[in-house]
Design a protein that fits this description.
Helix 3 (about 55-75) packs antiparallel against helix 4 and helix 5 (about 125-160) packs parallel to helix 8 (about 215-225). The chain is about 65% helix and about 5% strand. A hairpin with a 7-residue loop joins strand 1 and strand 2. It has one domain (about 1-235): Cytochrome c oxidase-like, subunit I domain (Cytochrome C Oxidase, Chain A, Up-down Bundle). Strands 1-2 form a two-stranded antiparallel sheet. Residues about 225-235 have low confidence and may be disordered. By secondary structure, it is mostly helical. The protein has helices at about 1-10, 20-40, 55-75, 85-105, 125-160, 165-180, 195-210, 215-225, 230-235; strands spanning about 110, 120.
Length: about 240
């Protein structure tokens, strides 16, 4: 979250939208961690891997995450740079995908408004599918997409060179979105999940993983190149 606020300002040539909204996001997210951690100590969890916090913590995180999305989008909206730098595309993918995963995997019904306990609306294999679609992409987007965004800004900045191919980085982005996002069923091989779902996920994930090597080429060439096109240079954070 912190690096996205740092990078979007510098690549958009604009200050963060709102005076208090960014502070609400930062403090609100830290409050969520405190609420969730307190629940763990009290034994209040959903019993779902990577999604242990109960419904009251999930609702608070949803509010904070929506505010985060609005601040990020509003900053891009008022940018002075005509193009959206590729790092911001990856940050947006990270924000939006985590939002969808969070809402789907944490769709619960509280026992009562005063009870910290809740029950998931999904059952059986549907619950398992949602859990591991969330579980895998919690790594695939909360970590991978976020770190790719960081690298697409700081590697060119550190090397004082633009990325090797800006167009290739855009292809990399869409490959991640359309192929890698379906990962999840491979955590459920030899279960009640239909075979077609397991097979389809593997067929999509394999080329998706190949495209994850694209930034390696971009970063390596970024350090080695001596010249660049005007288009790439203009979009470089350096």
């Amino acid at each position: 979250l912190a690096t996205s606020f740092y990078v979007v300002q510098r690549t958009s040539q604009a200050r963060l939208a709102g005076d208090l909204s960014p502070w609400f996001v930062v403090l609100g997210y830290n409050l969520f961690i405190v609420i969730a951690g307190t629940g763990y100590l009290l034994g209040l969890t959903q019993g779902k891997e990577y999604a242990e916090p109960e419904w009251y913590a999930d609702i608070w995180l949803t509010i904070v995450w929506v505010a985060y999305l609005l601040v990020f989008l509003a900053t891009i909206w008022k940018r002075k740079e005509p193009h959206i730098y590729v790092a911001n595309w990856f940050y947006l993918a990270f924000i939006l995908t985590i939002a969808v995963l969070h809402l789907g995997n944490n769709a619960t019904i509280p026992v009562s408004i005063f009870s910290p306990k809740s029950y998931i609306v999904w059952s059986g294999v549907q619950d398992a599918m949602f859990q591991w679609w969330y579980g895998h992409n919690a790594v695939g987007f909360f970590l991978t997409a976020g770190f790719l965004a960081i690298m697409y800004y700081f590697v060119p900045k550190r090397a004082n060179r633009p990325v090797y191919s800006y167009r290739l980085s855009i292809v990399h982005f869409w490959a991640l979105i359309f192929l890698y996002i379906w990962a999840g069923p491979h955590h459920l091989h030899y279960t009640a999940l239909p075979d077609w779902a397991q097979t389809l996920e593997s067929d999509l994930r394999t080329p998706g993983r190949k495209w994850l090597s694209v930034p390696v080429l971009n970063y390596r060439e970024c350090y080695e190149q001596e010249s660049c096109s005007s288009f790439s240079c203009r979009l470089s954070p350096s």
